[in-house]
Specification:
By secondary structure, the protein is mostly helical. It has two domains: 280 residues, Ribonucleotide Reductase, subunit A, CATH 1.10.620; 39 residues. The chain is 70% helix and 0% strand. The chain is built from 15 helices and no strands. Helix 2 runs parallel beside helix 5, helix 4 packs antiparallel against helix 5 and helix 10 packs antiparallel against helix 11. The longest helix is centred in the middle third of the chain and has 34 residues. It starts with 7 loop residues before the first helix and ends with a helix. Keywords: Oxidoreductase, Plasmid. This is ribonucleoside-diphosphate reductase. One of its GO terms (molecular function) is ribonucleoside-diphosphate reductase activity, thioredoxin disulfide as acceptor. Its cofactor is Fe cation. Its EC number is 1.17.4.1.
């Protein structure tokens, strides 16, 4: 629980993973200040899962056509599943290998917010769904929803079930695959799901649900940037491992894109529809969002050069919507901070496509 012999405060060396067991939660001798910045930014976003009124959304659920309500129900159920897995996966698997105090803090913050997200979705289900328990049963039985999450669950299960005597080289690979799986989840799977919620909200309904999801999307964009920073650092700390497994990054990316395409077909089957979005547009958006992810992973991927869903700009770009004073203050702080070129590159690549 507390390593009295930790030497990080002397050497200034706190590798992200597989270093010395941690002693003090040392934020004084942090070799990667970006981790502290990301933690501070995340905690500045703190919010409560019950703060948005869902009264009208309950009425929308009762009065809107089935093809629209089913689209929202399917989307919310998968989001609930994915956030439940994300918070549990980090806490029960990868966190025990962390040897950097800043990363430990950041992961704990991400776990907290993923928990807020899952509680928010469950609050939405409880307050607006006609049969909340029936909806959960439907989620457990949805083979399409489970398949959409297979890569994430399998990747973390591989690390969870790793043998104690597994060679360090192989353990590094499993850890890196988990970091990549989360990176893909936050920058592709979640963004595609948000696109459906916001498309429905663009028609003037489910405004409470959309307001909640907008807060969640803001958090997930930060988590996506965090994943990009971790990969940048790991490429420096474990260069040989990073290059050895890079071909697998491409396979993982292609798998996620393929699963999202299949989900889009499922989502818009059996008559489900919403104005401004269909299966083809959603697939194009998935491909569009995969481009910056591929760039950061160092693999090739072709997709649309222009955002096929321009309405996403107003939902994801906080500069186009009214922000809380706390957010404005934080944004100004970040804009006035001096960043390294590598941090700027990751921010610019991800923000360009998200907003």
């Amino acid at each position: 629980m507390f390593n009295t012999g930790n030497t990080g405060h002397i050497s200034g060396s706190y590798p992200l993973f597989l270093g010395e067991d941690l002693g003090f939660a040392d934020s004084i001798n942090q070799p990667y200040p970006i981790l502290e910045k990301l933690y501070d930014e995340q905690m500045g976003f703190i919010w409560n899962h019950t703060e948005v009124d869902l009264t009208q959304d309950r009425q929308d659920m009762l009065s809107l056509p089935k093809e629209v309500t089913d689209l929202m129900v399917e989307t919310i159920l998968w989001q609930t599943l994915a956030d439940s897995v994300a918070s549990r996966a980090i806490g029960s698997t990868i966190l025990k290998y962390v040897s950097n105090p800043g990363l430990q803090d950041l992961y704990n913050a991400i776990i907290l917010f993923e928990t807020i997200h899952s509680k928010t979705y469950l609050h939405i289900i409880r307050q607006t769904f006609v049969d909340p328990n029936g909806a959960l049963k439907r989620g457990y039985q949805s083979l399409e929803a489970i398949k959409r999450s297979t890569l994430l669950m399998d990747t973390f299960n591989n690390l969870l079930n790793a043998k104690d005597d597994l060679p360090t080289k192989e353990l590094r690979k499993l850890i890196m695959f988990c970091v990549v799986a989360l990176f893909l989840l936050e920058n592709i799977n979640f963004m595609a799901s948000f696109a459906v919620t916001f498309a429905i909200a663009e028609t003037g309904v489910y405004q409470g649900i959309a307001s909640n999801v907008k807060l969640i999307a803001r958090d997930e964009m930060l988590h996506g940037r965090s994943g990009g920073e971790l990969l940048r650092i790991l490429a420096k700390e474990w260069p040989e491992t990073f290059e050895e497994v890079r071909p697998m990054f491409k396979s993982m990316l292609d798998s996620v894109v393929s699963d999202e395409h299949a989900w889009a077909d499922h989502l818009f089957s059996t008559g489900r529809q919403v104005i401004g979005l269909n299966a083809k547009l959603l697939k194009d958006y998935v491909d569009y969002m995969a481009i910056p992810v591929a760039s950061i992973l160092g693999v090739n991927f072709s997709g649309p050069k222009e955002n096929p869903l321009p309405y996403m700009d107003s939902w994801l770009d906080s500069s186009k919507t009214q922000a809380a004073a706390q957010e404005i203050q934080l944004t100004n702080y970040l804009l006035n901070s001096i960043k390294s070129s590598s941090e700027e590159e990751i921010d610019s690549v991800l923000r360009k496509y998200a907003c």
